[in-house]
Design brief:
Blueprint: H1 27-44, E1 53-54, H2 74-78, E2 81-87, H3 91-102, E3 111-114, H4 123-126, H5 138-141, H6 145-148, H7 159-172, E4 179-180, E5 183-191, E6 196-203, E7 208-218, E8 228-229, H8 249-252, E9 268-272, H9 276-288, E10 291-295, H10 312-322, H11 326-338
Parallel strand pairs: 2-3, 2-7, 3-4, 9-10
Antiparallel strand pairs: 1-8, 5-6, 6-7
């Protein structure tokens, strides 16, 4: 696809014309833009709500690569009482655990992390689609860079590198064997007499288990789930269907760290959507599939990423100049910028 060109009738200029500056939009143009946004919003507000989607089977065991089969920790399996139980083993859950350990509030053997995924990383464990990349500067987004002494490879690192960083954090703070994966939290009840939570879980589709914990911390993200649109004929479609957040490399070929999708040479691929995921995945599909057809409802705003390899000289200088607490300072600066904080 070529670059979009937005014309302005008053001047005939376009934003792709380097010889002409961006004209000031008139009040009429501004109102027209608002009306277009309202129109697109109205197309999304459907009376059928969530019934417009097909239920998606979301079992982590079916999504694991051979090296990621859920390990059974016998010692942890015997433990039923915990000081802190954290729901979610992504960056949020790991950060909660690390900060508790850093303050001396508890020890690793008093913590349990519970996650439906098959490993550490949260969204970076589930998502493995080709081209998956962090869309926020890695030096700000990746937690505990200072404490782990880790240098991101790029300004915007891959999802594979983010998942590795989650595992690095778990290893450094002895949390690797303090998690139940493939585990769903069914409900939680507060026991006032014992001053504890009773946490009902189901591990790896086995019989439910009840755990006790003094403290429960919710780090489960947005509670979202993959959705497949209920398209006419989907129930009789003979082709292969999957969601990008459950990418099927067994079908396409390749792997998250090497998306050589050589099984698609003779395939026509239909891709529904043009959001941030599509922008990353479609170029990779186009390299391997015989044909790619993109179905778009609402056009997305796309800009140049300008990703770059981390300059190690700059990296060392930046850390030396800012000293201890450099990452927190960089995060605060970033947040102030995007919040228009004076």
């Amino acid at each position: 696809m070529g670059e979009p060109s937005i014309s302005y009738e008053e001047t005939g200029a376009t934003i792709n014309d380097p010889a002409v500056g961006m004209p000031e939009p008139s009040e009429l143009k501004i109102q027209e833009a608002y009306q277009r946004y309202d129109s697109e919003r109205d197309r999304r507000l459907r009376p059928d709500g969530f019934t417009q989607y097909v239920d998606f089977v979301d079992e982590p065991a079916a999504d694991l690569r051979p090296a990621e089969k859920i390990a059974i920790n016998d010692n942890l399996n015997q433990q039923k009482d915990f000081r802190v139980l954290i729901v979610g083993a992504g960056f949020g859950g790991l950060l909660f655990a690390v900060r508790l350990l850093q303050t001396g509030f508890c020890q690793p053997d008093e913590i349990l992390l519970v996650d439906k995924a098959g490993g550490f990383g949260g969204t970076w464990w589930w998502n493995k689609y080709p081209g998956l990349t962090c869309d926020v500067e890695s030096y700000v987004y990746m937690p505990l860079l200072e404490e782990t002494n880790y240098t991101p490879s790029h300004k915007y690192v891959s999802g594979f590198e983010l998942k590795e960083h989650a595992e690095r954090i778990a290893n450094q703070w002895n949390l690797k064997k303090r998690a139940f994966f493939g585990t769903k939290v069914d409900k939680m009840d507060w026991n006032n007499e014992d001053a504890q939570w009773k946490v009902h879980i189901t591990k790896n589709n086995h019989l439910p288990t009840i755990l006790k914990s003094d403290i429960v911390i919710m780090a489960n993200g947005l509670l979202d789930f993959p959705k497949i649109p209920k398209l006419n004929g989907l129930d009789t479609y003979k082709g292969h269907v999957f969601h990008t957040s459950r990418w099927d490399y067994a079908y396409t070929g390749g792997s998250p760290d090497n998306p050589t999708m050589d099984n698609l040479h003779d395939k026509t691929v239909g891709f529904v959507g043009t959001g941030a995921t599509a922008v990353q995945a479609i170029p990779h599909l186009a390299q391997w599939a015989r044909k790619v057809i993109v179905f778009q409802r609402t056009p997305s705003s796309v800009d140049v990423r300008e990703n770059s390899v981390t300059d190690l000289t700059w990296w060392k200088t930046m850390i030396q100049e800012n000293g201890p607490g450099w990452q927190r300072g960089r995060m605060e600066n970033f947040n102030s910028f995007i919040s228009n904080d004076p």
